Amino acid sequence: MVTACRGRTWRAPLALVGVVLLLAVSGCRWPRDTGTTLDDVRGGVLRVGVSEAPPWTRVADDGMVTGAEARLVQRLADRLDARVEWYPGSESTLMAALKDRVLDLVVGGLDAKAPWTREASLTRPYVTMRTVVAVPDGVAAPAELAGQRVAATAGTAEIAALRGEDAVPVPVPEVTGREPLPVVVGQWRLAELGLRGSGHEVAKHDHVWAVPLGENGWQVEVERFLLALSHREVEDLLVDAEREEAAV
Questions:
Q1: Statement to judge: residues 228 and 106 lie in one domain
Q2: What are φ and ψ of residue 173, in 5° steps?
Q3: Strands, DSSP E only, in the chain?
Q4: Could you read off the pLDDT of 157-196 as tens digits, one per residue?
Q5: What does UniProt give as the signal peptide span (predicted)?
Q6: What is the CATH number of the domain that holds 12?
Q7: pLDDT tens profile 45-77
Q8: How far apart are the first and last CA of the chain?
C-alpha cells in the first residue's frame, strides 16, 4: 500500500495503514490550502478511505476493495483521469484522517445521519435504500410483525430491528429467498430472489460520501457525479456486488 502526501510517497503494510494515515502529515506541508482538492485529484491521485460495509464496500485480506461503491469511486476517478489509492480502516480513524486532509474521500455505506459533521462534510444523499420484510411465493404477507417469525441474517442490525417490532427473529446464515417464512432483505434484492414486499419496512438509509471540510469545489464535483446516478443503477451495482460475493 502506498501512503501519499502531495509530492512524497512511501509504502506501508496494510496492517499499519491506520498508523500511517495519522503519521503521514508529519512529512508534508501542513495544513494543505483549502479549496485545492479538486485540482490536486484531477490528473493525479484520489486517496480514498474505505470501511467494510457489504455490499457497498468489501476489503479483502490483500487490501483489494470491491463492492458497489468501489465501482462508483473508480468511475469518479476515471472521470477525473485520476488513480485511486485505497486506505481501509474504521470510520472513526478514516474521518480523523479526512479532517486532517490526509484523505480526499471516505466511503463505506455511510448514512446521512452519521455523527461525523465535525470531522467531515457529508454529500447530499445520492440514494435512499430500505430494508424490508418480504415473502416468497406461497407465504402470506403478515398484516403485522408483532409475534411473527421472520428470518434475517444472523449477527446483523436487522435482528435487533425485528425485536424492536416485537417480531420473533429467526437467524439464518444468509437469506436465500427459499425460506418458508417472511424474510428481511435489502429492497434491491427483491427481484433477484423472487420475493415480494409485505409493506413492512425495518430500516431506511440515505447514503452519502464524506469529503474534507471546506473543500466546496471538490464537494460540488463529487455531488454532481453522485446525483446523476439513477436509483436503478445503484440497485444493479448492489445486486452485482452480492453475486460477486456469493461466487467467491
A1: yes
A2: -60, -40
A3: 2-5, 8-11, 45-50, 58-59, 65-66, 83-88, 105-107, 121-122, 127-135, 149-153, 168-172, 183-186, 196-207, 210-211
A4: 999 999 999 999 999 999 999 999 999 999 999 999 999 9
A5: none
A6: 3.40.190.10
A7: 999 999 999 999 999 989 899 999 999 999 999
A8: 23
